[in-house]
Amino acid sequence: MSKHTNKRKKEAEALFKKGFKKEMIVLKTLNYSIDNNGILKNSNGKIVGSPNGDDYYKIQVTLGGKIQTVFTHRLQAYNKFGDDMYKKGIMVRHLNSIKEDNSYLNIELGTAKDNNNDRGEEAIKESQRRATEGSRKYSAELIQEAREYFKKCKNQAKTSRHFNIPTSSLDYYFNKKNKQL
């Protein structure tokens, strides 16, 4: 290990202990660089970084005596916006929702709502549909069965007992707005 590298690492450790942010330390003290295409290079000019399980590119450095994960998109955001990225309620966004695209033009700051909206209308609707499905107590098949049973017997209390579904729930599911359930 060179004298300069060792000195930089000691300086990085000291800054981290004082509360300086990882992104600033990696770019300014450890001399990593990130270009407009989102390519991250270490102080020797070698391209570094690998995807984590969620497809976000990252590097790992030792700070505070522990291995710290530093995400490439956050390095690009620090490169572009500086300390503004640490404001309360602000997060780093990929405008095109492609987590591997850490290019300068694709990285932006915004709120959680902005970040959600970046996914596009179709992705948002699909997410909402899955959330609704997951929270539904009774399957669409069971409700359809109960609806057909009710059409024959014309007695909601009997249908409720037969399928063990409260009449208030049947009211909801049989309502015109919920015919698709």
3D architecture notes:
The chain has 181 residues and is α+β, with helices and mostly antiparallel strands. The chain has eight helices and seven strands. It has a three-stranded antiparallel beta sheet. A two-stranded antiparallel ribbon has the order 1-2. The model has no long low-confidence stretch (mean pLDDT 89).
**How many DSSP-defined strands?**
7
The description of the largest β-sheet is:
3 strands, antiparallel
CATH topology of the largest domain: Homing Intron 3 (I-Ppo) Encoded Endonuclease, Chain A
Strand order of the largest sheet: 3-4-5
CATH class of the largest domain: Alpha Beta
CA-CA gap between termini: 65 Å
Structural class: alpha+beta
The count of domains is 2
Number of helices: 8
- Roughly how many Å is the radius of gyration? 27 Å
Low-pLDDT ranges:
none
Strand content: 5-15%
Order of helices and strands: HHEEEEEHEEHHHHH
Q: Which CATH architecture of the largest domain would you pick?
A: Alpha-Beta Complex
Query: What number is the mean pLDDT?
Result: 89
Write the layout of secondary structure elements.
Blueprint: H1 3-17, H2 22-29, E1 33-34, E2 40-41, E3 50-51, E4 57-63, E5 66-71, H3 72-81, E6 91-94, E7 107-110, H4 112-117, H5 121-135, H6 140-153, H7 156-163, H8 167-174
Antiparallel strand pairs: 1-2, 3-4, 4-5, 6-7
